[in-house]
Every structure is written in structure tokens, then in C-alpha cells.
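Friendly challenge for the regulars: who can give me the C-alpha cells for this chain first? No prize, just bragging rights.
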Amino acid sequence: MKFVLASYGTRGDVEPYVAVGQELLRRGHVVRMAVSPDQVGFAEAAGLSAVGYGPDSREWQKVHREFLRRLSRSFWQVRDLSSLWRQDWELINHFWDDAAATLTSLADGADLVFTSVLAEEPAANVAEYYDVPLATLHYFPMRPNGQFVRGLPRRVGRVAMGVSQWLSWPLTKKLGDAQRRAFGLPKSRGPAARRIVDRGSLEIQGYDEVCFPGLSAEWARFGDRRPFVGALTLELPTDADAEVAAWIAEGTPPIFFGFGSMPVQSSADTLAMISAACAELGERALVCAASSDFSDVSNDRVKVVDTMNYAAAFPSCRALVHHGGVGTTAAGLRAGVPTLVLPTWADQVIWATQVKRLKVGTARPLSKTSQESLVADLRMILTPECAARAHDIATRMTKSTESVATTADLVQDFARSWRVS
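First reply, four minutes later:
Bragging rights claimed.
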């Protein structure tokens, strides 16, 4: 069979599709990938055929993040906001145009299209045009439910999420209708999410059921169309793993610090804060620079590396401090280590909230974090009670290899069932 996997975003967004693509390829299927241009090399290094589409994901995120930052802090500067909004909208148009053209080419003769949330509307239009099944992957609950919005009655939470979908629909309606018109499809009558559900698509939940207690029961009416598979990660080894393991073994278990694919606002200040907080607590710090320009200040108490295998290192850490990316959060939950989430992006706030709800750590926006608050938050999670709770949750998390294999089974079986239905 032929599978088209369309993802968009930074490394953490694309990695789940690369993991599933590798497994499908190993099973003898034809796999074609469409990813953001800056992630083509990553997909190809994993042995997959990939093409880029849309703008560079980091460029788009940088513009969008700056627009939101200005909107929240200096909304009266209308000229600057207007300029950023135009830049943001130009990049959105670029993405939609490229997505339509790229996926139309790749999906010709495909048995299934498997896509991410950012690409799901163009992908859904292409799948409908070719009359092939669509599978989507969600990193947190995207469809209306009563578990997601804390503090509201469940019915009210479901209604609020449904209303939000309808209110956001006009933002992309013009783009979506233009695509559907070009494909000869009927004009849309509602949000893409509703059309995707009504068409009977497979909506894979790329996180564990334990992370959102009660959600599985609430969605029972959808049967096997919203399966929970756990986080899809590759757990790839890196050149620094042996060095990291040796450093960890030289002293007490360290506290891990890492902030993902988007650089922190001030690397020097952030690293100084980490060093000072750990010195005050008498702890060691293991810092993964990733996209942040942390200078190499490695010493007996602080170790800085560019990349590392989280799955290998996290179980040997005393606590974790990170941005709340879905892959990093899952690696921490699987390792059974207390976590402090310092989010910088909206979806990261969702995982920060769940870490607090599960009582395996706490959270605070990175922008509101100081040396004093960092010390206080670390003291809060460095307790036997928090460690015990984290260990308990770890026993109920799905192993990454099982998550990937289950997802490959699901999309494979769904494509077969569609053929005979």
C-alpha cells in the first residue's frame, strides 16, 4: 500500500510521522512524506522519501510568536501589529498554496493520507478529492470534550470548544473554499474538524489515556475512531550520549534543563539563572542547548550539550525542567521523574497544566520565571511525594516502540477497511 504522511512544524512536530513512516516502510509499504522545508533532511536521514512544503517552520513560528507577544504587551502599537499580521498572513497563504499542490501530487494513487493538525484541512480536502481515507494525529485533545477546560462543567466545556471551532472557522474559510472549488468539491458548510469527523476519519490520539483521566469514557461513542496510542518518538541515540552518561555517573543525579526547538529570549541570562539556582540548592545541572545558544560553561556542577537522547538520560535525573513539548513531556512521564514545565507556546501550556493536574510536578511561564521562583518550584517538586507520584504514572505510560507499532497497525488496518467498505 501507499501512504502519504503530511506533517508541518519543528522537529517535535515531524518526529512522530518519521517514526510511523519508518515502521510502515519496514513492513514493505510505499511511504511518501511532506514536511516543512527545514525538516526534509531529518526525514531523509531516517531513510524516508520527503519533500518540503510551506515556509520554513521556524520563520513562521518566529513571526507568529512576535505578533502574539506584541498583541499581549503593546496592543496600542497598531502599525507594528498590522505589519506583523500581514507577514503572518502571507506565510499562512504560502503554506496553504504549497500544501494543496504538494499533497495533490503525492496522494495520487495513495491508500491513505496521514496528517498533523496544522495540515489537516488541506489534507482533508485532498483525501476527499481522491476519495481515500484520512487519519489525523492529535498531540492533545483537539475535539470538543469536557475534560480539557478545567474548572467548567463537562457539558459547558464541550460547548465552549465547539463554539471556539466555529468562531475560528472564518479565518481559513476563504482559503478552504478556494481549494475545494479547485478540486470540484462542495462548498464547506462548517469547520474542517466537523467534516473530518463526519467523514469517519481515524483520529489518533498521540498521548496516553492516563494523561487526561475520563476522556476515553467520554469519547466511547466514537468507538475505535479515537484510539489512544501514547507519544510517538524515535528515541534516537546521539554522539553526546556516552559523554552525558559518564558525567551523570560522576556525581549526584542532576536536574535536566532544556527548551526545545525555539530558542529562549536570552540564552546568557537563562543559563546564569539555571547555574545560580542549582548552586543555591546544591544540585547539578544537565543542560541541552538544542536551538538556544548556550555557551559551553561545563564544569563539575553544570554540563551543557547540544543534543542528547532524552529516553536514555532522563531516568538518571533527579528532576526535569523543560518547555512542555509533547515529546519531551512524554519522555519525562515515561521516565517517572518529577517535572517543572516552563512553557513559551500555547500547546506547551496545555501540557504544563496536565503535569500539575497529575501531581507529577508544577509549572510557570518561562517569561515569569526568576532565580527565586525557579528555586521555589524546584523545592516543590524535589519531594518524595512528587517522586512517588511520577513513578506511579510511569508504570501506566505506553512504551515508545509500542506506540509506533500500534499506530502503524491502525493506519494500515484503516486503509484496508476503507477499500472494502
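The chain has a mean pLDDT of 90. The domain at 241-394 is CATH 3.40.50.2000 (Rossmann fold). Your move, everyone else.
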